[in-house]
Amino acid sequence: MLSTGALRAHLLAARLAGPVATSREESLRSYRLFAARDPRVLLGLDPQWAWDDRDLIALMADKCGVSADPRHTSGPDVIDPERTLAGLDAFAGRLRRAAERRAPVLFGTGHPHRLLGFYAELADALSAAGCRVLTPAQGVRVDITTRFGLRTYALDHVRGVALVRDPAGVGAGRAAGAHSHSPLPVRTALAAAVEAGGPLPELVVGDHGWVCGAGQLGVEVIGLADTDDPALFVGEAEGLVSVAVPLDDAVRSDYYRPLTRYVLGRAGLSR
């Protein structure tokens, strides 16, 4: 198993934590939009509490380690690697519990170009431990509003991980899908599971709308989030998200492999 010290060094070297590529300007813009209840950054969450900009900066300073000074308005944002490590430990604990219960699990990502491999290895390990990795709503069309207007995507499952892609690419075996923040895919997947009368997930693992959309519906959720994704950390503060791990969610896909080894080792799922 990868040691904590080795992983800390990797987090900093790969800029998964420490100074990250996400800028302070991007993060502050997301906080302003979240405070205004903009659905683009709510990610399917319906916050119970009133959150203004300063509340969100304070929350993100506590959860991620970003600057708590609202006068700090430019430059790279910063994630405290100790908070990332603590989050990964808690994340692994939830996976361990799911494995012990042989619980049905749903994986989904809005960052398939970066995070598909990370989730797929976890899905393989849980499947080997006796969990059912769910793949509902294969090929079902979803209309998602994007900055380019309304676009139609289709749900696909690659190596046990749900994502959305152009309908023409579904089932074609191509690993990459579309980047998405929308909660509509997970809502569609859960509705399809209910309609089919099959098992519902006891745990959803992922990011963006996959986490917040399912958490808002009362499913236990764990996920990864960057400094410009306050919704997951608000969800954690309000009790709708079990674990939100702070890290840069858009670095090279191979940079997440040490995290996979660490999480599987901590969860007792190493093979």
Automatic annotation (TrEMBL):
What InterPro entries does the record point to? Phosphatase_SCO2771
UniProt cross-references to Pfam families, sorted A to Z: Phosphatase
Report the protein name in the record. Phosphatase
Phylogenetic classification of the source organism = Bacteria, Bacillati, Actinomycetota, Actinomycetes, Kitasatosporales
